[in-house]
Amino acid sequence: MSTPALAVSRPWDRAHPAASLEQSTGPARWSYAASPGTFLLLAALHAGLAILFRAQPVLGVPHALATFGYGVLVAIRRPQAVLPVVAYLAGAELLWRMNQVPVSYESGKLFCIAILAVALVRGGRARTQSAVLLFGGALFLPAITATVANFGWTELARSSVSFHLTGPVLLAVGAAALASLPPVVDLNRVLAAFSIPVLGLGAFVLYSTATATEIRYTTESNFATSGGFGPNQVSLTLAFGAVALAILAVASARQVVRWLLILAALFLLSLSVFTFSRTGLYCAVAGFVVLALHLIVGRYRGLRLIGALALMTLLGTLLVFPQLDRTSGGNLSQRFAEANPASRIDLMRTDWHTFLANPLLGVGVGVSPLHRDDPNLVGVTAHTEYSRALAEHGLLGLLAMTLLFGSWVQRQLTARSLWQRAVTGALGGAAFVALAASAVRLAIIPFFLILAFSTASRTTEPGA
Questions:
Q1: Cα–Cα distance for residue pair 88/45, rounded to 1 Å
Q2: By the 8 A CB rule, do 211 and 51 touch?
Q3: H or E element that contains 430
Q4: With the C-alpha atoms ordered 248, 250, 251, 254, is the resulting torsion angle positive or negative?
Q5: Quick check: 277 and 218 in contact, CB under 8 A?
Q6: What is the spatial distance between Cα 218 and Cα 330, in angstroms, rounded to a whole number?
Q7: In 3D, which of 227, 339, 198, 326 has the Cα closest to residue 281?
Q8: Most confident residue range from 305-309, 366-370, 458-462
Q9: How many angstroms separate the first and last alpha carbons of the chain?
Q10: What Å distances lie between residue 69 and 63, 86, 149, 173, 267, CA to CA?
């Protein structure tokens, strides 16, 4: 039997090479062994990079291109080891985007697609699962013809396709690559590579908020507390970082490291909430709940670990949130008390009507905002990927989503241990909620699903 593709081991603890709620998954061939001090130092370095990029955006270009070049080199020379680089790119995407670094707005997703495609070609083994996933991604492409028919060969057509399709293509290519590449990389190395730039982003957001000359608190999403960028994207990225750190905390065998990681997760989640965007909190809660449910029924340190997560929840609820609410003059609690999804439901309803009127191929990528039957919603971009796929891709979009996510569910159901299901569920839970609230605006969403694919399908029982 093959060795694990993504072994689940405890970070920073060489004496315990594997962690599972029930049993070991076997030793990883490439485990993350950096010290907690080094981990935090690298995160602080990325906060400095963010400050530098804000002052001189052009300085972010060498960082972005060097990361991409290194990823391509790894994909060529050791394709089975590209996942940590892809994780880092997904985590660093917002550092470039929010500071207006002069690279493509979709560079994070485009870089990941290119690296994973090279890895698939260089090292992939022909598998039916990979072919199915690539076919699912290809089903999104015919709608481009309708986009060109509506917009012509214009910049609007190009930007619409890039904005809406890079996410689904990344999911298809990444999942296909991970389904065909041989096993190597340790899960904790991947999550650590993702968490470092996200922690740096969090530190930068805190610095930006603390040094802001004026912050006006209302019950709407707040750009000033989001590092001067879109609160939805910042909130989502920080929340995904919190989920990754929580998984690392559960996997850690050292109590000090576990508590450091839990506090780091609480730090990111607090900043996510303070953007006044609710999406990040919803995604994090989905990930935490699934992880906690598996811990409750786990037979290996389950109760102790669920106690740690419960304490983190209490600290956030009783200490952190009340302080943030007082700082905002009560606007934060009012914002989260008004959790009304009416606007997104209205958009989903108009997408459904658009699908019924154009069921075969849809209206074209990025064209659905022009077909809203509510005049107040005309021109508003979809926030829900599920309804967008129906409206803009028709039945082909429905089939594509069914193939991609049905395959993910099948992989989860065939996971061989409780810990595999816990990680798969936590990553997938956060990503599925994000798809319902933020479409695929960020590389982290398809990345979490890709990682869940790998975690579910690439482990083996000890002694096998």
A1: 14
A2: no
A3: helix 418-438
A4: positive
A5: no
A6: 9
A7: 339
A8: 366-370
A9: 6
A10: 10, 12, 36, 19, 32
Contact (Cβ atoms closer than 8 angstroms) between residue 218 and residue 331:
yes
Residue 18, φ and ψ in degrees, nearest 5: -145, 145
Q: What is the rounded CA–CA span in Å between residue 202 and residue 356?
A: 43
Contacts with 265 (C-beta within 8 Å, 6 or more apart), sequence order: 241, 242, 243, 245, 246, 249, 312
> 12: which 2 tokens?
């920073």
Residues in the chain: 464
Alpha helices in 181-254 (DSSP H): 187-210, 231-251
* Amino acid identity for residue 424 in this structure: T
Tokens of 241: 């970082």
Among left, alpha and beta (phi > 0; psi -120 to 50; other), residue 448 is alpha
Residues 61, 86, 250, 292: what is their CA dihedral angle, to the nearest 10 degrees?
100
φ, ψ (nearest 5 deg) of residue 322: -60, -35
Q: Is the pLDDT of residue 321 over 80?
A: yes
Q: Is 331 exposed, middle or buried (0-12, 13-18, 19+ CB in 10 A)?
A: middle
Please state, as a whole number, how many other Cβ atoms lie within 10 Å of the Cβ of residue 155: 8
Task: Kindly state the greatest CA–CA separation across the chain.
Answer: 63
278: amino acid identity, one letter: R
Task: Give the whole-angstrom CA distance, residue 142 versus residue 322.
Answer: 50
C-alpha count within 13 angstroms, C-beta hemisphere, residue 138: 7
Distances (CA, A) of 339 to 41, 191, 277, 318: 37, 30, 10, 20
**Which residues lie closer than 8 Å to 329 by C-beta, 6 or more apart?**
217
Its pTM stands at 0.88
- Per-residue pLDDT reduced to its tens digit, 265-295: 999 999 999 999 999 999 999 998 888 887 7
| Rounded Cα gap, residues 118 and 102, in angstroms | 25
Here the tokens at position 319 are 């200490």
Which residues, including other chains, have CB under 8 Å from residue 280's CB and lie 6 or more apart? 234, 235, 236, 237, 238, 239, 240, 269, 272, 273
